[in-house]
Amino acid sequence: MGEAWEVCMRALEQAGTPAGHAATQTNLLLEAELRGRASHGLLRLPRIIERIHNGVADPKTRGKAVWRSPAFLDLDGERGLGPVIALAALDQIRERARETGIAIAAVSNNNHIGMLALYAEQVAREGQILLALSTSEALVHPWGGRRALIGTNPIAIGVPTEDEPFVLDMATSQVAMGKIHDYANHGRALEPGWALDGAGNPTTDAAAAKSGALAPFGEAKGYALGLAFELLVASLTASALGTAVKGTLDSSAACNKGDVFIVVEAGSGAVAARISAYLDEIRACPALLPGRSVAVPGDRARAERRQRLEAGIELADDVWHRILDLAQCAA
């Protein structure tokens, strides 16, 4: 962990990123790795550096905020680093929600914000509820279709409890495109039903799927949710839709997707206690499969984090070598 942190920081600072912003970006990437989400981890660092060099990511800005109403914040990200802008928005609406009970931020012109669960967990740990939505390039085919026309459009929900917060983080695709890239980097075959190739045919070849389309999760229901989230985010942020969305998977296009954060003041401590008791009841449910206990969303990611803190992060050789090259250029 220590070496990875130093390498990432050195590469980002060499690209003109202030130390505080570099630490924010590095932390999001490493936390994704620790939770087993390599698709949102260090494999994204080279692209972030390239985007800075190409002028489509500004590593110094915290965006420009305007309150549309007492509880509605518009934030122009000014092409900033995704996590930096996201946390700037959250800082403002979390404070406002303490006064108004609820506050929303509509974020535009921002780069990829990374793993949504990390924001949900942070807000919930501090006693507030978070609902986060984001859009992406058109990577998912509509149910029954053969062409990518809808974003993966993830949602995260964080709810405080007496113990570890409840954290849901899921895309509306069967898998994230970053996971397809991770499988391709490791030479692993995809699960059947995850993706189509460039010709619109089902495939288990991760390299072929990179130019194809992801399946919506839950068939027609996942398709409908993904489309609804895309329309909701675009309505609030005036962001692009469908195949017009660019900038989270390349190094040269300005990012024009949208992000929405809603913070709500949670109930009393008694409510948190009841939630914790209910979640424990769910965990104690008799297991359907031997040796596999019932988990609540967020449990396995935290367990993965504990294991990887002890065992270390394992990266694909080509990803680590690219990051080392960036750091050596910075030395």
TrEMBL record:
Keyword Nucleotide-binding tagged: no
Domain of life of the organism encoding this protein: Bacteria
Annotated family: Belongs to the LDH2/MDH2 oxidoreductase family.
InterPro entries reported in the protein's UniProt record: Mal/L-sulf/L-lact_DH-like_ah (IPR043144), Mal/L-sulf/L-lact_DH-like_NADP (IPR043143), Mal/L-sulfo/L-lacto_DH-like_sf (IPR036111), Malate/L-lactate_DH-like (IPR003767)
Organism field: Achromobacter veterisilvae
UniProtKB keywords: Oxidoreductase
Annotated protein name in UniProt: Ldh family oxidoreductase
PANTHER family tied to this protein: MALATE DEHYDROGENASE (PTHR11091:SF0), OXIDOREDUCTASE-RELATED (PTHR11091)
